[in-house]
Amino acid sequence: MDGELAFSAPAERNRQPILELLRTLLPPQGRALEIASGTGQHVAWFAQHLPAWQWQPTDLTAELFASITARCAQAGLANVQAPQVLDVRSARWPVADTLFDLIYCANMLHIAPWDCCTGLLQGAARQLAAGGQLVTYGPYLEDEVPTGAGNLAFDASLRARNPAWGLRRREDVQAEAQRAGLRLAARHAMPANNLLLVWQRGN
Ligand SMILES: C[S@@+](CC[C@H](N)C(=O)[O-])C[C@H]1O[C@@H](n2cnc3c(N)ncnc32)[C@H](O)[C@@H]1O
User: Fold this and answer.
1) Which residues have CB under 6 Å of ligand 1?
2) Could you identify the atom of ligand 1 that is nearest to the CA of residue 119?
3) Gap from CA of 46 to ligand 1 centroid (Å)
4) DSSP for 106-141?
5) Residue 95 contacts by C-beta under 8 Å, 6 or more apart in sequence?
6) What is the pTM (predicted TM-score) of this model?
């Protein structure tokens, strides 16, 4: 915890490298939906540094919404909406009436059952505006890339905590994306053996 705010050390470390890449990927302004906002460190950082973007944080439960709201208020951010409960597996997301230029989801796919991956991809296919991008960030397994020892240990620890969790094969996510009508548009290697993947509509 950081004062009253929920705090994630990894989110603090990776927010700046992710922001720097987002700057190169995104148009100057747009509407962004964050899935699995967690502590709100990412949305607050991105909203502060990409002020022409409007941000909608969400998560499976409202448990950390007070932290998200307080963090954004402390930073004086007027471009972050109140967080909303959103389960990616639901057939109709609570933001169903809005299309987004960016849907951003960090570190959820491996800490959730596989149907959350399906739900995320199908939901993004429904909710992306024309030319919009789904960005997923986190560790993956890849057929052609040796998995680092740290990620192998992380995968084992996740599966021990919950057999339905674990690092996802990037190729499996890609096949699921194709079924949902999305294609992998870009793959960016990030610090600490993470990937930032960009998904767009089309096959
Ligand atoms: C490790 S945290 C990542 C938080 C934040 N994105 C980050 O990178 O620090 C995993 C998040 O996934 C969310 N999550 C798990 N299942 C979900 C679901 N079905 N729909 C939406 N979010 C989900 C959890 O509530 C949690 O906030």
Assistant:
1) 8, 11, 35-36, 38, 42, 59-60, 86-89, 106-108, 111-112, 116
2) 19
3) 17
4) ES-GGGS-HHHHHHHHHHHHHHEEEEEEEEEEE-EE
5) 33, 56, 58, 84, 86, 127
6) 0.97
Ligand 1 centroid, distance to 88 Cα (angstroms): 10
CA distance 103 to 1: 27
The first and second tokens of residue 5, run together, are 């705010």
Distances (CA, A) of 79 to 29, 32, 36, 73, 155: 11, 10, 18, 10, 36
Q: How far is the CA of 166 from the centre of ligand 1 (A)?
A: 14
Name the amino acid, one letter, at 57.
Answer: P
pLDDT the model gives residue 4:
78
Does the pLDDT of residue 1 top 60, yes or no?
no
Q: Convert 125-141 to b/e letters by CB count within 10 Å (16 or more is b).
A: bebbeeebbbbbbbbbb
